[in-house]
Specification:
Number of strands: 15
Order of helices and strands: HEEHEHEHHEEHEEHEEHEEHEEHHE
Strand content: 25-35%
Distance between the termini: 45 Å
Helix content: 25-40%
Shape: globular
Largest sheet: 6 strands, mixed
Radius of gyration: 25 Å
Length: 364
């Protein structure tokens, strides 16, 4: 088993195409062809994490947060980032980060928060735009089923909980091959009218390369005519944050105590209580101030996130309860998600869950 086989499996869960533009995800250190002795799954990748990997004979670290975020101009060990990279290289340890690709995954970071709170009717809070592609192509009628099957196999035609979704129209196509052409049907210099099917399929942008490759490999024509467009349709399964409902409503102060216990945080910073029942809950792991307006627009009674600044709390505007549970606390279950996923994918392989608490924030 090499690094690439494991990371490709992770990208089935959280395709890197959906990571935020500012992020630095994927293989950050190491060779993707390196044979893997074991995988250590962690939230962060620090010096203690690399030491833990060495101790457990793991030469691949799968971390949520990327250790390299900005550019590195030197590797002298003057910062903790440089020391981690140096130590990993010296011990032939690869480092892979998944970060906002998993944030934007339906069964990712925010779903884990919802899971801890037993929220029902879960939906993406801020759907990511331009994630759905539409392919239109023209195929000889007798070859349409073969081409369509190849497109499905490549990942096209998946809509929510449905697969093999398509639409077809029948018509007549025309073309005139020149002397340089090598037509499958018709003759050079003669206009050809062919009974064709117009096929329509949609797909997630992360499989575009595979879908177009399948189209060209299965299509009988020398020149394949197709149109590719980006749709503005809302993607129900890709986006950041999540909103759901408690099975039973809770009084605000009771709910605040509840999330303090659930997320094992030293304190919950929150806006003014409003004297209303908490039923609809919006969540966003990590720094989520940018989503306050989305949570309000969605009708949430409370928004659970982290890293709120002083002025962010004013944005509650007596319409919503804002609850900051801490960055680490909001994302702490992410490594359990990744560990569980990899263990199911590779049941006979060494997948080790990091036991290190890497939270840099302490409470007194």
């Amino acid at each position: 088993m090499n690094v690439k086989e494991i990371t490709q499996s992770l990208e089935q869960l959280a395709p890197l195409a959906y990571a935020e533009d500012f992020d630095n995800v994927g293989l950050l250190v190491g060779d993707d062809q390196q044979e893997v002795s074991g995988v250590l799954v962690s939230l962060d990748c620090l010096e203690v994490t690399v030491a833990e990997a060495i101790e457990n004979n793991c030469n691949l670290i799968v971390a949520f947060h990327p250790i390299i975020f900005g550019g590195l101009k030197s590797l002298t060990g003057k910062s903790y980032v440089e020391r981690v990279v140096i130590k990993a290289i010296q011990n032939d340890i690869a480092i892979y980060a998944i970060h906002t690709a998993l944030d934007n995954c339906f069964k990712g970071v925010n779903d884990m928060i919802c899971e801890q709170l037993n929220l029902t009717n879960r939906q993406v809070l801020i759907p990511q735009s331009n994630t759905i592609k539409k392919l239109t192509t023209y195929v000889p009628r007798k070859d349409a089923d073969k081409v369509l099957e190849a497109l499905f196999k490549a990942g096209a035609g998946n809509i929510g909980n449905y697969e093999h979704c398509s639409f077809a129209l029948e018509g007549k196509g025309s073309f005139l091959p020149n002397e340089e052409a090598n037509p499958v049907v018709g003759k050079k210099g003669e206009l050809q009218i062919e009974e064709e099917k117009q096929l329509h399929v949609t797909f997630g942008k992360h499989v575009q390369h595979q879908v177009l490759a399948a189209l060209k490999a299965s299509h009988p024509y020398e020149e394949v005519a197709y149109e590719l467009t980006s749709l503005e349709n809302t993607n129900q399964h890709i986006g950041i944050g999540m909103i759901g409902e408690l099975e039973s409503g809770m009084e605000e102060k009771t709910f605040l105590k509840h999330i303090k216990e659930v997320f094992k945080t030293g304190a919950v910073r929150h806006s003014h209580v409003l004297g209303k029942e908490i039923k609809k809950v919006a969540v966003l792991g990590g720094s989520g101030a940018f989503a306050i307006s989305a949570a309000k627009s969605a009708g949430a009674d409370v928004f659970i996130t982290a890293d709120l600044k002083y002025h962010d709390f004013f944005k509650a505007e007596n319409k919503i309860l804002l609850a900051d549970i801490g960055h680490y606390e909001s994302e702490q279950y992410t490594k359990n998600l990744l560990h569980s996923y990899l263990t199911k994918k590779f049941p006979n392989f060494a997948i080790v869950l990091s036991q290190k608490n890497t939270n840099p924030i302490q409470y007194s």
